[in-house]
Amino acid sequence: MDWFELLFAAEVAVGGLLSGVMYALVAIGFVLIYKTSGVLNFAQGAMVLFAALTFVNLVERGVPFWVSVAVTLAAMTALGFGIERTVLRPLANRSPMTLFMATLGLSYVIEGAAQLIWGTQVHRLDLGISNAPFEVWGIFISTFDLVAAAIAAALVAALTAFFRFTHTGLAFRAVADDQFAALAVGLRLDRIWATVWAAAGVVALVAGLLWGARLGVQFSLSLIVLKALPVLVLGGFDSILGAIVAGLVIGATEKLAEVYIGPFFGGGIEGWFAYAVALIVLLVRPSGLFGQKRVERY
Amino acid sequence: MSVLLEFRDVEASYGGAIAALHGVSLSLAEGEFAALLGANGAGKTTLLKAASNLLPAERGRISAGHILFDGQDVTAHDPGDHLRRGLVPVLEGRRCFKNLTIEENLITGAIGRGLRRTSIAQGLEQVYDLFPRLKERRKVAAGLTSGGEQQMAAIGRGLMARPRLFVLDEPSMGLAPLVVTEIFEALTRLNVETGLTLLVAEQNSAVALKHAHNATVIENGRSVLQGRAADLAARSDIRDSYLGGASV
Ligand SMILES: Nc1ncnc2c1ncn2[C@@H]1O[C@H](COP(=O)(O)OP(=O)(O)OP(=O)(O)O)[C@@H](O)[C@H]1O
Ligand SMILES: [Mg+2]
Questions:
Q1: Crossing angle for the helix pair A189-215 and A167-177, nearest 10 degrees?
Q2: A83 part of a folded domain
Q3: What is the mean pLDDT of residues B170-189?
Q4: Which of A140, A210, A277, B237 has its CB surrounded by the most CB atoms within 10 Å?
Q5: Angle at A164 between CA A163 and CA A165, to 5 degrees
Q6: Domain ABC transporter spans what residues (chain B) (predicted)?
Q7: Rounded Cα gap, residues B17 and B60, in angstroms
């Protein structure tokens, strides 16, 4: 490989890493809920869509930017609390499959509601972040992608600090560790779950804004769950760090694969490459790179 | 002395079919240290979980009889409500939060009770005074500590919730005799110094009878024998017939 080819490869990888940040963001929403309640929340994608649609419609109706952010944030929190109350609490102690099916149904309800409230047209979303590429050591990097990555990193840092340093965060980690013991210790599981759903709503909002600004706000936005699933398989369903690393790995490898292996398949492998990676991981290490192996009770 | 906890002909089953208790009666006075003895599968754990209303979380329920804590039927409240009223369980198998440090484990006990930071600091001091070993290990993930340390952490976590009635399920399980003695001596100290009421389920009848005031023996889900611990300890026939001949 000569110098230019190397630069090009690096540019592809960096672009991939930055879109990987977005995958990670969606995956983290899953992890939060899965860790505390063992529910694989298929509705996370619908929540992303709902957040983006709500925001963009408010802005289009002339509501100031930060007010729209605040209102959408409130809406997502309310949605999270509402889901916990009406769907999860009545189904507590049911099998994981029942809960998964419930969230699958929920994702259609949310999408339907979003459609009813906000209509079906595609919206452009402008967050006021420049899209001009800039150059570092001969590599072109998208400003937007870099800012998006910084926002995602700030969100992850905030979440981490919350879980590390607050009592609610400590209670969250306790529930994630041993639900029955948490119940016996008197931790209020329903409040913790409601908080987690609200946090997942906030993550969905950030993901929705960033993805929406990149691709336009439209119904296909809810399909990013399908990008998050292989990330979860690779990183482990219960690890936030795993979601981040796996998001980056999948983002970078799928772009590189598209460029270097793609031509042998006639291109278009970006769509399924992540799943091929996930499949291999499932065969080799079912708990993912960072997931906890289930420890048998004595 | 007033009765703090009372079981009246309690029957319980799991999943609507598997009967685990067939009539257990037992009452516990304030300030008492009581032991609940019985062989594997006798129903000790089921009885203790029933007291905290933890059976529904395991798809079990009380099918007949009553359990009264402080005069109120326990099925009317959540486990957390009972805990905040002073009925604090320490589960079988310790059930520490393995990924949390020892100190974080202790703090969860106080969070469950709804305590503020200053009371938490006080509680930590008391627990470390009772189990100095926990203080040395306070920054270590509970899953990496020894069985004895985990048991102490589980007991400490319970104490952080300021119990009036402390209910422990087999605290001696899988521990070396020296550690078992240390733990029972700590429990006795709590009982004597603070008047804490204790109900302790044990298979290790020797150590339990040595420290408790009274004991109830259950067999196949029924209470079959009740009396002063010292009297029961003196009768070797009881050991042989009900407690699987557990050696002293
Ligand atoms: N979650 C459960 N689901 C169904 N049956 C159960 C459950 N837990 C206990 N049982 C059954 O209830 C009966 C009493 O069990 P329990 O655990 O209360 O006994 P134990 O006296 O605590 O025994 P050990 O000394 O072994 O801990 C047993 O026959 C057991 O198989
Ligand atoms: Mg038991």
A1: 100
A2: yes
A3: 95
A4: A210
A5: 100
A6: 5-245
A7: 9
| B235 min Cα distance to partner chain A (Å) | 34
The residue whose CB lies within 8 Å of the most ligand 1 atoms, and thus the one to mutate among B11, B13, B18, B200, is B18
User: Which residues in chain B (185-224) have CB-CB distances under 8 A to chain A?
Assistant: none
3-state secondary structure of A93: coil
Q: Which residues face B67 on adjacent strands?
A: B7
Query: Side-chain half-sphere of A153: how many Cα atoms within 13 Å?
Result: 10
Per-residue pLDDT tens digits for B96-127? 999 899 999 999 999 999 999 999 999 999 99
* B79: nearest CB among A171, A186, A298: A186
Q: Is residue A289 domain-resident?
A: no
Q: Hey, which bits of A23-148 come out as E strands?
A: 133-136, 139-142
Q: Residue A153: inside a domain, yes or no?
A: yes
Does A161 reside within a domain? yes
Contact A174 B100 (CB under 8 A): yes
- Confidence at A1, pLDDT banded by 50, 70, 90: low
The neighbour count for residue B235, using CB atoms within 10 Å, is 12
> Each residue of B23-51: pLDDT tens digit?
999 999 999 999 999 999 999 999 999 99
Residue B68 tokens read as: 């009264």
Alpha carbon nearest to ligand 1 atom 31, residue: B41
Residue A295 has pLDDT above 80, yes or no: no
Closest by CA position to A163, among listed B144, B123, B100: B100
| Number of domains chain A is built from | 1
Chain B positions touching A177 (Cβ under 8 A) are: 97-100
Q: How confident is the model at residue A296 (pLDDT cuts 50, 70, 90)?
A: very low
Range(s) of the domain holding residue A38: 17-284
- pLDDT confidence bin for A235, thresholds 50/70/90: confident
Domain containing A21 — which CATH number?
1.10.3470
Q: What does the pLDDT look like over A150-189, one tens digit per residue? A: 888 898 889 888 888 999 999 989 998 898 999 999 999 8
Q: With contact defined as beta carbons under 8 Å apart, do B107 and B120 qualify?
A: yes
Instruction: Between A181 and A265, name the one with better pLDDT.
Output: A181
* Closest protein CA for atom 16 of ligand 1: B43
- Contacting residues for B33 by C-beta, under 8 A, at least 6 apart: B187, B188, B191, B197, B198, B200, B211, B212, B213, B214
Q: Global pTM?
A: 0.83
Is the ipTM higher than 0.85? The answer is yes
Measure the N-to-C terminal CA separation of chain B; round to a whole number of Å.
32
Q: Indicate whether B246 pLDDT > 50.
A: no
Contact criterion met (CB below 8 Å) for A18 and A251: yes
Place of tokens 């930590």: B124
Give the DSSP per-residue string, A255-291: HHHHHHTGGGGTS-THHHHHHHHHHHHHHH-TTTTTP
Beta-carbon neighbour count of residue A191 at 10 Å?
Answer: 13
